Design the sequence.
């Protein structure tokens, strides 16, 4: 039995590593295919070597604001579920979670499990922790959909063509559907509970007390209140997280002394972020940079300027965030060995 479990774990780890290597290879191929000429890479790196320090600092500040807003989003949703965790601890968690999400194969399960354990250690119930992750996930999807829809509208307004008007309508439907799911999350949770019961009848898994605990947790998650006012506030915060990250991209243009193609920059950002979430490689390495640069070029940016701005944006929002994030993983792990009293407060300080 132990040998069988070990073989299964080895196979899973091998598949995750293979997907990781494949994803990196795909990302590199995307960059090389889309920007295969050496002269364009040389020109882009030349621009990167002469960045404006003030704009780089502004880009770092915008990305920091994005991460801090996400920490506040977590705090607000946790309080709706009856838990209250101090902002410094949640900010460290956000940095650590970002690093894990962008580097560890098996996403989004690994980073979600990491956050779940952190919430539980800081006093959240199992239902409250799971509900927080679920709610934030949907709110982030709505926030990104709103920005992407706005990007489509701006791009259409700047274009004389009407071929893509259907895209805006589809985007609006997606936003409304995601909003309905967030408001009527009880239906989704009931469906999840039904799927757990069906899986147990058909496959026998999850067995015994584990299956019962899952069903009990889903039932308790349905009891956590979320008013329309709270829903609007959560979605606004989620959109603000993305918008601050988008400001980092705008600052990246200033850093490499490039003009911003206003007609398509928001659309390019949204499409690149969506492409980066595809389960190919953590963080969308190569895919985000390539898709971002290609759309920017399509809306008037020079090849070298688009690529250098995309690289500068990713250096700050991805590579720098990863470096700081793994330091936060170590700090959070060290604090996790201490009592949680310093990071846990009584509820009632922030708006709910």
Sequence:
């Amino acid at each position: 039995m132990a040998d069988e479990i070990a073989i299964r774990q080895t196979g899973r780890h091998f598949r995750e590593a293979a997907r990781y290597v494949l994803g990196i290879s795909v990302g590199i191929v995307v960059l090389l295919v889309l920007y295969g000429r050496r002269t364009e890479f040389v020109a882009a790196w030349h621009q990167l070597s002469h960045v404006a320090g003030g704009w780089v600092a502004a880009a770092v500040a915008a990305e920091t604001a994005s991460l801090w807003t996400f920490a506040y989003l977590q705090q607000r949703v946790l309080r709706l579920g009856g838990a209250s965790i101090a902002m410094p601890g949640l900010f460290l968690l956000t940095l650590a979670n970002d690093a894990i999400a962008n580097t560890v194969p098996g996403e989004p399960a690994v980073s979600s499990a990491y956050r779940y354990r952190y919430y539980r250690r800081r006093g959240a119930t199992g239902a409250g922790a799971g509900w927080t992750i679920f709610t934030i996930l949907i709110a982030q999807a709505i926030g990104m959909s709103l920005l992407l829809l706005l990007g489509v509208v701006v791009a259409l307004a700047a274009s004389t063509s009407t071929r893509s008007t259907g895209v805006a309508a589809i985007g609006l439907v997606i936003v409304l559907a995601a909003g309905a799911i967030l408001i009527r999350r009880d239906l989704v949770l009931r469906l999840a509970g039904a799927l757990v019961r069906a899986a147990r009848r058909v496959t026998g898994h999850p067995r015994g007390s584990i299956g019962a605990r899952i069903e009990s947790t889903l039932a308790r998650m349905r009891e956590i209140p979320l008013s329309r006012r709270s829903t609007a506030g959560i979605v606004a915060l989620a959109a603000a997280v993305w918008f601050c990250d988008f400001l980092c991209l705008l600052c990246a243009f200033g850093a490499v002394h490039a003009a911003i193609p206003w007609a398509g920059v928001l659309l390019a950002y949204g499409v690149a972020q969506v492409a980066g979430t595809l389960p190919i490689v953590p963080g969308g390495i190569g895919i985000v940079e390539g898709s971002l640069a290609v759309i920017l070029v399509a809306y008037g940016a020079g090849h070298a300027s688009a690529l250098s701005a995309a690289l500068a944006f990713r250096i700050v929002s991805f590579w720098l965030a990863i470096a700081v994030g793994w330091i936060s993983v170590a700090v959070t792990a060290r604090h996790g060995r201490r009592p949680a009293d310093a990071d846990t407060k009584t509820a009632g300080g922030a708006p709910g």
